[in-house]
Structures are given as C-alpha cells and as structure tokens.
Amino acid sequence: MSLLRAREQARSILDVDYERLYGLGKRAVLFDLDNTLGGRRPAELSPAVKELLDHLTQMGFRVGILTNRRIGTKDPVIVDLAAKYPLRYRAGKPRKSGFLEILAQMDVPPSKAVMIGDRLLTDVLGANRLGIYSIHIKA
Length: 139
Ligand SMILES: [Mg+2]
Prior knowledge:
Elements: E1 8-10, H1 18-23, E2 28-31, H2 33-37, H3 47-59, E3 62-66, H4 76-84, E4 87-88, H5 96-106, E5 113-117, H6 120-130, E6 133-137
Parallel strand pairs: 1-6, 2-3, 2-5, 3-4, 5-6
C-alpha cells in the first residue's frame, strides 16, 4: 500500500460512515482543523460540525484534534476546541510524535485510531506510517 494513499476518501467529515468505523473496532477519531473541521482557516466551527463531534463522543469515540497551526492560545477556534477535546497545535505532522502523544493522552492505540484530514503529505502519510486508519477529505 502506498503511504500516500488513504484507506478511504470522503467529500466532507459529515459524509464519513462512523458506525462502520466503530464496527471495525476504531475508538478514536483524530481530526485535522484547516479544510477539514472547517474551511481554509476557520475562526469558528459550524453547528453541524459541533453536533457531529458531540455525536461521536456519544457513540463511544474519543475525539482529538491534531493541527499544524502554529498559534494556539490566541486562536479562538483552537481555544474552543481545546476546552472540550484533546488538541495539539504545532503538531508537526507528518512526524510521528504528535500522533503518538495525543493518542497516549487519549489512551487509544494507533491500531484503533482514525485520522481524518485534507492533506496527503501530512495527515494521510503521518497516519499511514503508524497504522492509523486514514481518511482523506477531498472536497
Ligand atoms: Mg488541513
């Protein structure tokens, strides 16, 4: 398998079949931020996205955010997300350390994790190298 090929593609995070992922034994969903949870540099999340994250938590998933954005504490969308979910900014994707650190914090092994993001060279490559199930958002 090419390390740049995602296990699945979706047009939006709202189109992913999370029930199926749960059935596969996945227990954590990691989301990229820009062009994944929101638009290019979202200042806030849409109500539909907030609802989805709540729903995933209710389904039994741990939800985490892994972004390469450099600004953390002054960025309102990051502050809001970090109040509810494990979040790493300046995550250094595709390096392994950011993925492994947030999953350790969430107490879920890579084999039971899903990474959803829009960039092959950061989100998909980083996930695939660790055996994290990768989903590429291709709008
Ligand atoms: Mg992105």
